[in-house]
Amino acid sequence: MRRLFLILLLAAAVSATLLAADVSGKWNFTVNLDFGNGTPVFTFQQKGESLTGTYSGALSQADVKGTVKGNRIEFEFTGEYNGQQFAVRFTGTIQSDGTMKGEADYGGMASGTWTAKRAK
Questions:
Q1: Whole-prediction pTM value?
Q2: Contacts of 91 (CB under 8 A, 6+ apart)
Q3: What is the pLDDT of residues 44-74, one digit of tens each?
Q4: What is the pLDDT of residue 4?
Q5: CA 52 and chain centroid, separation
Q6: In terms of residue numbers, what domain contains 80?
Q7: Under a CB-based contact definition with an 8 Å cutoff, are residues 116 and 30 in contact?
Q8: Domain membership flag for residue 41
Q9: Is residue 13 part of a domain?
């Protein structure tokens, strides 16, 4: 019985890895923050659970690093405003329709929600 449980547990872990979404490509975001809205563009490259890419938006351009685990996505980049650098962190979920949504924190100075659709 213990062996069967271990086999089922291993199968579930492999299935979760195989079902993990691949978010590689260009994404159009809508970000709603305390002080206003923005429409940045992210370009992601995903290898397994590792996520890298670029951000392009009101804070200029920046390199992005993060993870994708199942339908959970987390990534961050360093933003700069008036010479002050701060960490910008996005957390969220990949939806069954292929879109994404979640929350954003701009170094404790602002926070809000975001949605994203793959660019065509």
A1: 0.82
A2: 72, 73, 74, 102, 103, 104
A3: 999 999 999 999 999 899 999 999 999 999 9
A4: 52
A5: 10
A6: 21-118
A7: yes
A8: yes
A9: no
Instruction: Single out the residue of 6, 9, 31, 10 nearest to residue 88, CA to CA.
Output: 31
Q: Can you tell me the distance from the alpha carbon of 58 to that of 40, in angstroms, rounded to the nearest whole number?
A: 7
Average pLDDT over residues 40-45: 98
Residue found under tokens 């890895």: 17
Q: Kind and range of the H or E element at 11?
A: helix 2-19
DSSP of 35-60: TEEE--EEEEEEETTEEEEEEEETTE
DSSP state of 98: S
For residue 9, the one-letter residue type is: L
Annotate 45-60 with b (16+ C-beta within 10 A) or e (fewer): ebeeeebebebebebe
Asked if residue 3 belongs to a domain, the reply is no
Q: Torsion-angle region of residue 65: left (phi > 0), alpha (psi -120 to 50) or beta?
A: beta
The reply to whether 100 falls in a domain is yes
Number of separate domains in the chain: 1
Report the CATH number that the domain containing residue 72 is assigned in CATH.
2.40.128.120
Q: Are 29 and 42 in contact (CB under 8 A)?
A: yes
